Amino acid sequence: MPETPAWRLEHSYSRLPGLFFTEVEPTPVAEPRLVIFNASLAEQLGLPEEEAAVYAGNRLPPGARPIAQAYAGHQYAHFTGLGDGRAILLGEQITPDGDRFDIQLKGPGPTPYSRRGDGRAALGPMLREYVISEAMHALGIPTTRSLAVASTGEKVWRQDGGLPGAVLTRVAASHIRVGTFEWAAAHREVEGLRALAEHTRQRHYPEIENDPVALYEAILERQAALIARWMLVGFVHGVMNTDNMALSGETIDYGPCAFMDAYHPETVFSSIDRNGRYAYGNQPPIAQWNLARLAEAMLPLFHADEKQAVEIANGLIPKFEPRFKHHWLAGMRAKLGLLTEEAEDATLIQDLLNEMQETEADFTNTFADLTNGRFEAKEWHQRWQSRLQRQPQPREESIALMRRHNPAFISRNHQVEEALAAAQEGDIQPFHALLDVVSHPWDHDRHLPDYAKPGTAAGYRTFCGT
After folding, report:
1. What does the alpha-carbon distance between residue 91 and residue 93 come to, in Å, rounded to a whole number?
2. Tens-digit pLDDT profile for residues 151-179
3. Which residues does the annotation mark as catalytic?
4. How far is CA 33 from each of CA 29, 105, 123, rounded to the nearest angstrom?
5. How far apart are CA 108 and CA 119, in angstroms?
6. Is the pTM of this model over 0.85?
7. Which of 8, 18, 29, 428 suits 363 as a labelling partner, its CA being 20 to 30 A distant?
8. pLDDT exceeds cutoff 50 at 31
9. Residue 355 to residues 162, 282, 393, 410: CA-CA distances in angstroms?
């Protein structure tokens, strides 16, 4: 018989030195109401259905020992101390399969790290994180996920006035970040740093030995694969500060994020990224920059002699670029149905991207059209067809490969905005309709032209949601 759903919370992170967290309770809200609940995720986690009070922070689930985590971060290249200013970790749920996931409330009130903030969140940004994180999960991209969104019956006050408040329940492999290591390094806590590294290894990389260099290389490999996956679906994270790089290799924090419509490497969606630091095409070098900050923090673990530690780090950081290119090229070959490898494939791919940029072609629809045979026989397409013909495998295998790597549907920016606007007015149905579509991104046989249509608004901007 299947196990009865139950909370099975453990607290391995709380066994780290007190430097890394502070105990804190959620602040109750006026009128908790469940807006959306992820029943399939709850089943995977082995969690029972709960009342809105649990997902708003008014009542703690059995076994919860709430804490706010401490970390630092390079925000737009400037170092600062941070911490969970509006997030509280309830504990680590042990699933029926024996896996471990953080259960965190986002927006449950102030913590010692709130820096004069109210610790609250608005309904719109929390629903944005829900739908886009679920879309990313459906695309097969490692990501934190959303278990529930509960409204609070209270307003949160921001520059654009009073907004309906909400609390998101986020599920993550962990919330250990590059910034968590930076926090320990800034406090010159070598033993704390060592404990954090061992905790990270045991939690996410148990297959490697207790070797900080091997741990770093494993982290680098996961980040290279993750960023490649972002690039392959036209995803722009928007705020790749070091506190938003999870060492589990999951996508975390869906603030000013979006998917590209028209392809351009300089695409930016964040309202505050005025210089394009986190533009689509900059994501790989920024990931390497962030990993360089991780290497700096881990120097005392690499070697007791600082000079030798720096030499080790300088040998590790450059490994990111070739690993990223490996994953990206393999992914692009799959998007074009290339089952074999040829030396000129990279040129063929780049020529397509150049043509897409010149013609302002929609990123997702271009590859979907190639998948489904909807293209004009231009010079590039003739080269591509010739390349396909040189493969020994049947054409059907190429098409099947493309259908698995070129989504028919993504979270279109204008549709996300329309769904969020309706939800904030009390109509959740457009949100559910959008969620249903983006949860089945590979369904090329589903005729939904409205959901495949690019937006028309130029200069689309998103905000961090704080």
Report:
1. 6
2. 999 999 987 788 999 999 999 999 999 99
3. 243
4. 10, 15, 12
5. 6
6. yes
7. 428
8. yes
9. 45, 20, 28, 22
